[in-house]
Every structure is written in C-alpha cells, then in structure tokens.
Design brief:
The chain is an alpha+beta fold and about 180 residues long. Helices cover about 55% and strands about 15% of the residues. It folds into three domains: about 5-40; about 65-120, no CATH class; about 120-184, no CATH class. A hairpin with a 7-residue loop joins strand 4 (about 165) and strand 5 (about 175). Helix 2 (about 70-95) runs antiparallel to helix 3 (about 100-120).
C-alpha cells in the first residue's frame, strides 16, 4: 500500500492544483462578467436616443478631489461673473431710456470689470503698436483681418481686438486668444 500511496500522491497534488486553477479562472471570469455588466449598465444610462451615438462608450469622468484654494478661486470667479451678469442686465434694462453715448460708457465700465476679473485669474491682455514688424513669433499671436502685405516687411497697421495669454506665476505663457490686427 505504501507503493500505491506514493503513486497516488502526485495525482492528488495535480488534481488539487487543477481544481485551484479552475477556481481561479472561474473567479476571474465572474469578475470580468460582473465588470462588463456594470459597464453596460453605465453605457445604457448614457446612451443617446438618437442614432448619433459615438463610437466609444460614454462613461462619466472621475472628478478629482479639490483643494480649498480651488473652491475659493471658483467662488471668487463665480461671484464676479454673477456680478457682471447683473450689471449687464441693468445696462440692457436701462438702454431703452439712455442715449447711445451713455450706453457705450456703461459698456466700457462693464468691459473694464471683466479685465479686472481676468487679471485676478492670471490672464494678460496684449496688443501691438502700429508699425510693429511681423516676425515668426508675432505671426503665431495674430489673426490678420484687414490689409495686405505689399512690401518686403509686413507691419501691423493697428490692433483691432486684443489677444489674451494665461500665465500662472513662472509657467510658460499659454495663448488663449490671438490678437486681431490690420496689416500694411
């Protein structure tokens, strides 16, 4: 019987090992199935009714935790925007009784308040002086709306609309809006 137990032991070991592998594969398949079911439920929640469904499933974005500084900044900016909306509503309501010059003056004040808001969010306004020669770096920052370049060098006749860059402290500036210019 000792001989039979010696020959039986490897088979028991192999059988138990196979059962463990089968159990592990079954558990893995269960979790994959559960994950797919959960994912399909999420996809069904976000499917559009139109036939314009995207090729990739839409899943909700994960919102990262926010610091108190982010909340304070958002509240400050949000309150400023609400104040500007209120100011615009007043301008619109009073425009029926005001002269054109008065309305333009109110809109200038309105624009200045937005400039202050942008300054507090690290946005900087930029424009170009008439006669500025357009080189490669300036070309990246402008949109030409008027004029033609007929000479050797293109120069800016005037800035029609300013541009904006975002620059937080010592970070590299990021172009937000190109300046709209007329050239000659």
């Amino acid at each position: 019987m000792a001989e039979s137990s010696d020959t039986l032991f490897p088979w028991i070991f192999i059988t138990v090992g196979c059962m463990a592998v089968v159990a592990a594969v079954s558990a893995l398949l269960y979790f994959v199935q559960k994950s797919r079911a959960s994912r399909s439920e999420k996809e069904e929640d976000f499917e559009e009714e139109d036939d314009d469904s995207p090729t990739a499933p839409i899943v909700p974005t994960v919102e990262m935790s926010r610091s108190p500084h982010d909340r304070h900044r958002d509240l400050t900016a949000g309150r400023s925007v609400v104040d500007q909306i209120e100011r615009l509503e007043i301008i619109i309501a009073s425009s029926k009784r005001q002269s054109k010059d008065h309305i333009v003056g109110q809109l200038d004040i309105f624009r200045d308040s937005f400039d202050r808001l942008l300054d507090s969010c690290y946005f900087e306004e930029f424009s170009f002086e008439p006669g500025t020669i357009v080189d490669l770096e300036i070309r990246k920052k402008i949109i030409v709306s008027e004029g033609d370049s007929t000479g050797e060098q293109t120069e800016i006749a005037e800035t029609l609309r300013c541009g904006f860059v975002y620059q937080y402290k010592d970070d590299e500036p990021e172009l937000v809006r190109k300046a709209e210019v007329a050239i000659r």
